[in-house]
Every structure is written in structure tokens, then in C-alpha cells.
Specification:
about 70 residues; 2 helices; mainly alpha
């Protein structure tokens, strides 16, 4: 009985971790969509100045992804 209870608690903890991870990834995906569309709009308005901002945003995106991956990999 105690073994089954521990197994259920682990499953519940894993479910909560997966939901939390999914919420974080979904939030960053949504933010990436908005930032990407804003960069695209800026590039149409000012084609000569947006290139550096696009590089910084891309590096920031990958750094955030790596941080999340390191945070949840065990």
C-alpha cells in the first residue's frame, strides 16, 4: 500500500513538472512569435538598422532555450 502511494505521488509530481515545463515553453513560444512578427515589421520599415537587433534576439532565444533545457534536464 505504501509503495503504491509513493508511486502515485511521483506520478503527480512528474505531471506537475511537465505541465509547468509546457507552460514555460508555451509562454516563450508566444513571446517569440510576437517578437518575430515585430522584428519582421521593423525590417519592412527600417531595413538597414534591424539586422543587429535580429541577431541579438536570435541569440537571446537560443540562450533562453538552453537555460530551460539545463534547468529541467537531470
Amino acid at each position: 500500500m505504501k509503495f503504491e502511494l509513493g508511486k502515485k505521488n511521483r506520478q503527480k509530481k512528474r505531471l506537475v513538472e511537465n505541465l509547468f515545463l509546457g507552460a514555460i515553453i508555451g509562454t516563450f513560444s508566444l513571446m517569440g512569435t510576437f517578437v518575430g512578427s515585430y522584428i519582421w515589421w521593423l525590417q519592412l520599415q527600417y531595413p538597414e538598422t534591424v539586422h543587429q537587433f535580429g541577431i541579438v534576439a536570435t541569440v537571446g532565444f537560443f540562450a533562453t532555450f538552453l537555460f530551460i533545457f539545463k534547468l529541467f534536464s537531470k
